[in-house]
Specification:
The chain is mainly alpha-helical and 282 residues long. α3 crosses α11 and α4 runs antiparallel to α9.
Protein backbone atom coordinates (compact mmCIF):
# COMPACT_ATOMS: atom_id res chain seq x y z
CA UNK A 1 0.00 0.00 0.00
CA UNK A 2 2.89 2.35 0.79
CA UNK A 3 4.26 1.84 -2.70
CA UNK A 4 0.98 2.86 -4.25
CA UNK A 5 0.71 6.26 -2.50
CA UNK A 6 3.75 7.82 -4.25
CA UNK A 7 2.43 6.57 -7.56
CA UNK A 8 -0.95 8.19 -6.92
CA UNK A 9 0.79 11.43 -5.96
CA UNK A 10 2.85 11.48 -9.13
CA UNK A 11 -0.23 10.60 -11.16
CA UNK A 12 -2.16 13.55 -9.72
CA UNK A 13 0.75 15.88 -10.39
CA UNK A 14 0.92 14.65 -13.98
CA UNK A 15 -2.80 15.29 -14.45
CA UNK A 16 -2.50 18.80 -12.97
CA UNK A 17 0.47 19.53 -15.22
CA UNK A 18 -1.46 18.42 -18.31
CA UNK A 19 -4.46 20.55 -17.29
CA UNK A 20 -2.23 23.58 -16.68
CA UNK A 21 -0.55 23.14 -20.06
CA UNK A 22 -3.94 22.80 -21.78
CA UNK A 23 -5.27 25.96 -20.11
CA UNK A 24 -2.12 27.94 -20.94
CA UNK A 25 -2.14 26.69 -24.53
CA UNK A 26 -5.83 27.69 -24.91
CA UNK A 27 -5.30 31.21 -23.53
CA UNK A 28 -2.18 31.74 -25.65
CA UNK A 29 -3.89 30.51 -28.80
CA UNK A 30 -6.88 32.81 -28.38
CA UNK A 31 -4.97 35.97 -27.29
CA UNK A 32 -7.00 36.21 -24.10
CA UNK A 33 -5.45 38.49 -21.51
CA UNK A 34 -4.87 42.09 -20.42
CA UNK A 35 -3.00 42.96 -23.63
CA UNK A 36 -5.98 42.34 -25.89
CA UNK A 37 -8.28 44.26 -23.54
CA UNK A 38 -5.93 47.25 -23.43
CA UNK A 39 -5.58 47.18 -27.20
CA UNK A 40 -9.35 47.34 -27.66
CA UNK A 41 -10.01 50.02 -25.05
CA UNK A 42 -10.50 52.81 -27.60
CA UNK A 43 -13.21 50.93 -29.46
CA UNK A 44 -14.89 50.00 -26.19
CA UNK A 45 -14.88 53.60 -24.98
CA UNK A 46 -16.28 54.79 -28.31
CA UNK A 47 -19.06 52.21 -28.16
CA UNK A 48 -19.97 52.97 -24.55
CA UNK A 49 -19.98 56.72 -25.12
CA UNK A 50 -22.20 56.29 -28.17
CA UNK A 51 -24.82 54.34 -26.19
CA UNK A 52 -25.79 57.33 -24.04
CA UNK A 53 -28.27 58.79 -24.02
CA UNK A 54 -30.58 56.09 -25.49
CA UNK A 55 -32.80 57.10 -28.37
CA UNK A 56 -36.35 57.59 -27.05
CA UNK A 57 -37.95 58.79 -30.29
CA UNK A 58 -41.61 57.82 -30.46
CA UNK A 59 -41.33 56.15 -33.86
CA UNK A 60 -38.36 54.09 -32.67
CA UNK A 61 -40.12 53.05 -29.48
CA UNK A 62 -43.11 51.82 -31.48
CA UNK A 63 -40.80 49.75 -33.69
CA UNK A 64 -38.97 48.40 -30.65
CA UNK A 65 -42.29 47.41 -29.07
CA UNK A 66 -43.35 45.61 -32.26
CA UNK A 67 -40.01 43.77 -32.43
CA UNK A 68 -40.27 42.82 -28.75
CA UNK A 69 -43.76 41.41 -29.24
CA UNK A 70 -42.53 39.46 -32.26
CA UNK A 71 -39.66 38.03 -30.18
CA UNK A 72 -42.11 36.95 -27.48
CA UNK A 73 -44.34 35.31 -30.10
CA UNK A 74 -41.35 33.48 -31.54
CA UNK A 75 -40.31 32.13 -28.14
CA UNK A 76 -43.81 30.85 -27.31
CA UNK A 77 -44.40 29.26 -30.72
CA UNK A 78 -40.96 27.60 -30.64
CA UNK A 79 -41.63 26.33 -27.12
CA UNK A 80 -44.93 24.71 -28.13
CA UNK A 81 -43.35 23.00 -31.14
CA UNK A 82 -40.34 21.98 -29.06
CA UNK A 83 -42.56 20.38 -26.41
CA UNK A 84 -44.65 18.57 -29.03
CA UNK A 85 -41.47 17.02 -30.44
CA UNK A 86 -39.29 16.78 -27.34
CA UNK A 87 -41.70 15.27 -24.81
CA UNK A 88 -42.53 12.17 -26.93
CA UNK A 89 -38.78 11.74 -27.49
CA UNK A 90 -38.25 11.95 -23.72
CA UNK A 91 -40.87 9.28 -23.07
CA UNK A 92 -39.26 6.94 -25.58
CA UNK A 93 -35.76 7.63 -24.21
CA UNK A 94 -36.54 7.19 -20.50
CA UNK A 95 -35.29 3.86 -19.21
CA UNK A 96 -38.19 3.27 -16.82
CA UNK A 97 -40.72 3.60 -19.66
CA UNK A 98 -39.09 0.51 -21.17
CA UNK A 99 -39.71 1.33 -24.82
CA UNK A 100 -38.30 -1.21 -27.31
CA UNK A 101 -34.52 -0.93 -27.52
CA UNK A 102 -34.50 0.05 -31.19
CA UNK A 103 -37.15 2.74 -30.68
CA UNK A 104 -35.37 4.15 -27.64
CA UNK A 105 -32.06 4.27 -29.51
CA UNK A 106 -33.68 6.01 -32.48
CA UNK A 107 -35.30 8.61 -30.20
CA UNK A 108 -31.99 9.22 -28.41
CA UNK A 109 -30.21 9.66 -31.76
CA UNK A 110 -32.80 12.14 -33.02
CA UNK A 111 -32.65 14.18 -29.80
CA UNK A 112 -28.85 14.24 -29.94
CA UNK A 113 -28.84 15.43 -33.54
CA UNK A 114 -31.40 18.16 -32.85
CA UNK A 115 -29.54 19.67 -29.89
CA UNK A 116 -26.08 19.21 -31.42
CA UNK A 117 -26.86 21.74 -34.16
CA UNK A 118 -26.82 25.30 -32.78
CA UNK A 119 -29.85 27.53 -33.24
CA UNK A 120 -27.81 29.86 -35.46
CA UNK A 121 -27.03 27.08 -37.91
CA UNK A 122 -30.64 25.91 -37.89
CA UNK A 123 -31.68 29.53 -38.50
CA UNK A 124 -29.33 29.86 -41.47
CA UNK A 125 -30.75 26.67 -42.96
CA UNK A 126 -34.36 27.80 -42.51
CA UNK A 127 -33.65 31.33 -43.76
CA UNK A 128 -32.31 29.72 -46.92
CA UNK A 129 -35.45 27.56 -47.28
CA UNK A 130 -38.43 29.57 -45.97
CA UNK A 131 -36.88 33.03 -46.29
CA UNK A 132 -36.20 35.89 -43.90
CA UNK A 133 -38.57 36.47 -41.02
CA UNK A 134 -39.79 35.05 -37.73
CA UNK A 135 -40.96 31.71 -39.16
CA UNK A 136 -37.36 30.68 -39.81
CA UNK A 137 -36.48 31.64 -36.25
CA UNK A 138 -39.37 29.65 -34.77
CA UNK A 139 -38.41 26.48 -36.65
CA UNK A 140 -34.75 26.86 -35.71
CA UNK A 141 -35.37 27.36 -32.00
CA UNK A 142 -38.05 24.66 -31.91
CA UNK A 143 -35.76 21.96 -33.26
CA UNK A 144 -32.94 22.78 -30.87
CA UNK A 145 -35.39 23.06 -27.96
CA UNK A 146 -36.85 19.65 -28.83
CA UNK A 147 -33.44 18.03 -28.55
CA UNK A 148 -32.67 19.74 -25.24
CA UNK A 149 -36.09 18.98 -23.75
CA UNK A 150 -35.87 15.38 -24.91
CA UNK A 151 -32.68 14.83 -22.93
CA UNK A 152 -33.56 16.84 -19.81
CA UNK A 153 -37.14 15.60 -19.55
CA UNK A 154 -36.09 11.96 -19.98
CA UNK A 155 -33.78 12.40 -16.99
CA UNK A 156 -36.66 13.82 -14.95
CA UNK A 157 -38.85 10.87 -15.93
CA UNK A 158 -36.16 8.40 -14.89
CA UNK A 159 -35.78 10.10 -11.49
CA UNK A 160 -39.36 9.42 -10.27
CA UNK A 161 -40.20 7.07 -7.41
CA UNK A 162 -40.05 3.51 -8.71
CA UNK A 163 -42.64 2.22 -6.24
CA UNK A 164 -45.83 3.36 -8.00
CA UNK A 165 -44.34 2.40 -11.37
CA UNK A 166 -43.55 -1.15 -10.27
CA UNK A 167 -46.96 -1.42 -8.62
CA UNK A 168 -48.67 -0.67 -11.92
CA UNK A 169 -46.53 -3.22 -13.73
CA UNK A 170 -47.25 -5.88 -11.12
CA UNK A 171 -50.99 -5.31 -11.51
CA UNK A 172 -50.72 -5.76 -15.30
CA UNK A 173 -50.36 -2.20 -16.51
CA UNK A 174 -49.09 -1.74 -20.06
CA UNK A 175 -46.09 0.39 -21.00
CA UNK A 176 -48.34 3.19 -22.18
CA UNK A 177 -50.60 3.23 -19.12
CA UNK A 178 -47.60 2.98 -16.79
CA UNK A 179 -45.92 5.92 -18.50
CA UNK A 180 -49.06 8.08 -18.60
CA UNK A 181 -50.44 7.22 -15.15
CA UNK A 182 -47.43 6.13 -13.13
CA UNK A 183 -44.47 8.17 -14.41
CA UNK A 184 -45.78 11.41 -15.90
CA UNK A 185 -47.93 12.44 -12.87
CA UNK A 186 -44.91 12.15 -10.59
CA UNK A 187 -42.62 14.09 -12.90
CA UNK A 188 -45.03 16.80 -14.04
CA UNK A 189 -43.72 19.46 -11.64
CA UNK A 190 -40.12 18.98 -12.76
CA UNK A 191 -41.19 18.73 -16.40
CA UNK A 192 -43.05 22.03 -16.07
CA UNK A 193 -39.95 23.58 -14.55
CA UNK A 194 -37.82 22.38 -17.47
CA UNK A 195 -40.32 23.68 -20.01
CA UNK A 196 -40.53 27.10 -18.36
CA UNK A 197 -36.75 27.36 -18.17
CA UNK A 198 -36.58 26.45 -21.86
CA UNK A 199 -38.95 29.34 -22.52
CA UNK A 200 -36.41 31.68 -20.91
CA UNK A 201 -33.70 30.18 -23.11
CA UNK A 202 -35.90 30.64 -26.17
CA UNK A 203 -36.15 34.37 -25.46
CA UNK A 204 -32.37 34.71 -25.50
CA UNK A 205 -32.08 32.49 -28.56
CA UNK A 206 -34.69 34.57 -30.37
CA UNK A 207 -32.51 37.64 -29.85
CA UNK A 208 -29.35 35.93 -31.11
CA UNK A 209 -30.72 34.31 -34.26
CA UNK A 210 -32.26 37.62 -35.33
CA UNK A 211 -28.76 38.67 -36.40
CA UNK A 212 -29.00 36.26 -39.36
CA UNK A 213 -32.38 37.63 -40.47
CA UNK A 214 -34.65 35.30 -38.48
CA UNK A 215 -36.89 38.10 -37.22
CA UNK A 216 -37.54 39.53 -33.79
CA UNK A 217 -35.65 42.15 -31.86
CA UNK A 218 -32.33 40.53 -32.76
CA UNK A 219 -32.79 41.55 -36.38
CA UNK A 220 -33.27 45.17 -35.29
CA UNK A 221 -30.19 44.88 -33.07
CA UNK A 222 -28.12 43.64 -35.98
CA UNK A 223 -29.23 46.49 -38.24
CA UNK A 224 -28.52 49.12 -35.58
CA UNK A 225 -25.09 47.66 -34.88
CA UNK A 226 -24.09 47.44 -38.55
CA UNK A 227 -25.19 51.04 -39.16
CA UNK A 228 -23.41 52.29 -35.99
CA UNK A 229 -26.67 53.60 -34.51
CA UNK A 230 -25.45 53.22 -30.96
CA UNK A 231 -28.20 55.24 -29.26
CA UNK A 232 -30.81 53.11 -31.00
CA UNK A 233 -28.79 50.05 -29.99
CA UNK A 234 -28.97 51.13 -26.35
CA UNK A 235 -32.76 51.32 -26.50
CA UNK A 236 -32.97 47.86 -28.07
CA UNK A 237 -30.61 46.34 -25.49
CA UNK A 238 -32.66 47.88 -22.68
CA UNK A 239 -35.83 46.33 -24.14
CA UNK A 240 -34.13 42.93 -24.28
CA UNK A 241 -33.12 43.19 -20.63
CA UNK A 242 -36.65 44.14 -19.59
CA UNK A 243 -38.13 41.27 -21.63
CA UNK A 244 -35.74 38.67 -20.19
CA UNK A 245 -36.32 39.86 -16.61
CA UNK A 246 -40.10 39.81 -17.13
CA UNK A 247 -40.13 36.29 -18.54
CA UNK A 248 -37.81 35.12 -15.77
CA UNK A 249 -40.14 36.47 -13.07
CA UNK A 250 -43.22 34.96 -14.71
CA UNK A 251 -41.60 31.53 -15.07
CA UNK A 252 -40.45 31.60 -11.44
CA UNK A 253 -44.00 32.25 -10.25
CA UNK A 254 -45.37 29.39 -12.36
CA UNK A 255 -42.59 27.03 -11.29
CA UNK A 256 -43.14 27.66 -7.59
CA UNK A 257 -46.92 27.28 -7.78
CA UNK A 258 -46.93 24.19 -9.99
CA UNK A 259 -44.15 22.59 -8.01
CA UNK A 260 -45.87 23.02 -4.66
CA UNK A 261 -49.26 21.82 -5.92
CA UNK A 262 -47.81 18.87 -7.82
CA UNK A 263 -45.65 17.84 -4.88
CA UNK A 264 -48.63 17.57 -2.53
CA UNK A 265 -50.76 15.78 -5.11
CA UNK A 266 -48.12 13.26 -6.14
CA UNK A 267 -47.33 12.52 -2.48
CA UNK A 268 -50.96 11.70 -1.74
CA UNK A 269 -51.30 9.54 -4.82
CA UNK A 270 -48.12 7.59 -4.14
CA UNK A 271 -49.16 6.42 -0.65
CA UNK A 272 -51.52 3.60 -1.75
CA UNK A 273 -48.86 2.28 -4.13
CA UNK A 274 -46.21 2.27 -1.40
CA UNK A 275 -48.49 0.43 0.97
CA UNK A 276 -49.24 -2.14 -1.74
CA UNK A 277 -45.55 -2.81 -2.37
CA UNK A 278 -44.66 -2.90 1.32
CA UNK A 279 -47.54 -5.27 2.05
CA UNK A 280 -48.85 -3.15 4.90
CA UNK A 281 -52.38 -4.00 6.07
CA UNK A 282 -55.14 -1.60 5.19
Amino acid sequence: MDDLNPRRGWGRLAVLAVVALLVGWSFAGTDVGPASLIQGREGALQLLSGLFPPDLDGDLLSRVLAATVETLQMSVAALVLGVLIGLPLALLMAGNVQAPAGVAMAARTVATLLRSVHELLWALLFVATVGLGPAAGVYAIALHSAGVLGKLCSEQLEAVDRGPVEAMRITGGSRTSTALLGILPQARANLASQVLYQWECNIRSSVVIGFVGAGGIGQALGIALHLFRYQELATLVASVVVLVIGVDRISKVFRSRMGAASGRTSDRRSRPHRSLLEGSPR
